[in-house]
Amino acid sequence: MSVAVRVTPSTRVADLSGVDYLVGDAMTLAALAGVTDRVGLMIEVDVATAAPFTVARRLATLDHLSAGRAGVLLHGGPHGRAEEFAAVVEALWSGWVHGTAPSTIRRIDHRGPHFEVSGMPTLPAGPRERPAVVFDEERLGL
């Protein structure tokens, strides 16, 4: 699968003019990571259909590619699902600290009303200490 991203002058203006985040899918944002320097890159996630493990891996990858500019915008699902989703992603994110040996990886065992996740993170966290997590309250029905 290939992704064609057309970098327009508006992409460069957004990067240079103080826009906080560009929001989109992980593949497009990964391509934009190489042509932007300042703007944050926010993966849009519908928590009703996404898996926290997959999102944690995509987020860590994007954070590495963008030198610490990755984040996630969560929406969808029943009340409480987005908060639990974020907690699981952050647990996976912090299970393998950036720059440490694989022997320091912490296992996650999460059992909640919406998710059951057990296992080891398979990718070190990105350069950022914690991912930026934003809840789209309007689309979450809050």
Automatic annotation (TrEMBL):
Domain Luciferase-like: 26-72
Gene Ontology molecular function: monooxygenase activity; oxidoreductase activity, acting on paired donors, with incorporation or reduction of molecular oxygen
Keyword vocabulary terms for this entry: Flavoprotein, FMN, Monooxygenase, Oxidoreductase
Protein name from the UniProt record: Luciferase-like domain-containing protein
